[in-house]
Design brief:
Radius of gyration: 18 Å
Strand content: 15-25%
CATH superfamily of the largest domain: TPP-binding domain
Shape: elongated
Helix content: 25-40%
CATH class of the largest domain: Alpha Beta
Number of domains: 2
CATH topology of the largest domain: Rossmann fold
């Protein structure tokens, strides 16, 4: 069974109705990104940050996985599928995918401000005074700007061993995630689905790159048809 590694990003979730946070003017829901997605912002105004992610959880509860999510889950019948996503939502899980690595954390989890390894399920609002068993304040389990991306250590070997790589819903412009494609073996087949593709350095180095200029839901069937020939 061939191994398929999927690198997914905000574009696939946007087709389910999830806002991609970042507006054209660089603001996230009207906030400066560093005010709501950095350790410094949390230190300055924890209530603002907690409420920002409370609103994201509410929005997540109102949307459903789309056709692209569903088709990726279906591929597990014929391929060893690993999804490495920059998304913090649970749409891949709800669609039925079973092997998912979240590079940037998960919206429906929380962790102690003192210990990033102590992670718990959290589906409701998170406020000041919500503590773990040790009496430590909880924060969203989100990788903020300036923080390490620990899951990269798991993601890298998955890409290295992939026979097929699919980049979907992401322009692969944000590092370190953007560098993952560069780890692919030379004979790996690389597919890039994006309505306005931007070929980064790592993608440009692929000897077997196929670009599908469509949205995630429009391009997924074409991708599936093509990998049947690989």
């Amino acid at each position: 069974m061939k191994k398929l590694v999927v690198l997914s990003g905000a574009g696939i979730s946007a087709e389910s109705g999830i806002k991609t946070f970042r507006d054209a003017d660089g603001l996230w829901e009207g906030h400066n990104v560093m005010d709501v997605a950095s350790p410094e912002g949390f230190h300055r105004n924890p209530e603002l940050v907690l409420e920002f992610y409370n609103q994201r959880r509410k929005q997540l509860a109102e949307v459903m996985p789309n056709y692209a999510h569903q088709q990726l889950a279906e591929l597990e019948k014929n391929y060893e599928v690993v999804i490495i996503t920059q998304n913090v939502d649970d749409l891949h899980e709800r669609a039925g995918s079973t092997n998912i690595l979240h590079l940037h954390g998960e919206l429906l989890k929380a962790r102690s401000v003192e210990n990033s390894d102590e992670i718990i399920e959290w589906k409701g609002d998170l406020v000041l005074g919500d503590l773990n068993a040790k009496g430590e304040q909880l924060r969203p389990h989100i990788v903020w700007f300036g923080e390490d991306v620990p899951v990269m250590m798991q993601a890298a070997p998955e890409v290295v061993s992939a026979d097929i790589i699919l980049v979907i819903g992401t322009s692969m412009q944000v590092y370190p995630a953007a560098g993952l494609v560069g780890l692919a073996k030379s004979d790996a087949q690389v597919f890039y689905i994006d309505p306005i593709p931007k070929i980064n350095y790592e993608l440009s180095q692929s000897e077997n790159l196929t670009v599908i200029e469509k949205t995630a839901t429009e391009g997924i069937d074409l991708f599936i048809t093509q990998i049947k020939k690989v």
